[in-house]
Amino acid sequence: MIILTSPSKSLDLESSYREHIVTQPVFLSQTSFLHRELVNFTQGQLKKLLKVSDSLAELNYNRYQSWKQNHNLSNSRPALFTFNGDVFKELELQNYEHKEHMYAQKSLRILSGFYGIVRALDLIQPYRL
């Protein structure tokens, strides 16, 4: 069984996690193509495109400026531990062990406008799209 969910707008970029097995997003080359377009947007253009406040436009402008194609543990986090909306809070990840993370890796897919289809342990960088 495959479980599909959408990403969340809120992100957790601070909390620690125990899992050290990570993977690369399958559609990273397509994400890089999108990034090459978005990195050229001004803050004002991003504000209009994303329909966000000035502060969120600035935050996401800076995220796109600092985004790197090479995803590693110094600039990225596993999707399962990054998305922080209601669905992800209900998963109670702090109670998971390695076997549950591996099950999520096999069975959970997150549909992302920026990354495409993301597995639980795929490394992602902060974004909003």
UniProtKB/TrEMBL annotation:
Signal peptide: none
Pfam hit, one: H2O2_YaaD
Record-linked InterPro entries: YaaA
One BP annotation, GO: response to hydroperoxide
Superkingdom of the organism of origin: Bacteria
GO cellular component: cytosol
Protein name per the record: YaaA family protein
Organism field: Candidatus Dojkabacteria bacterium
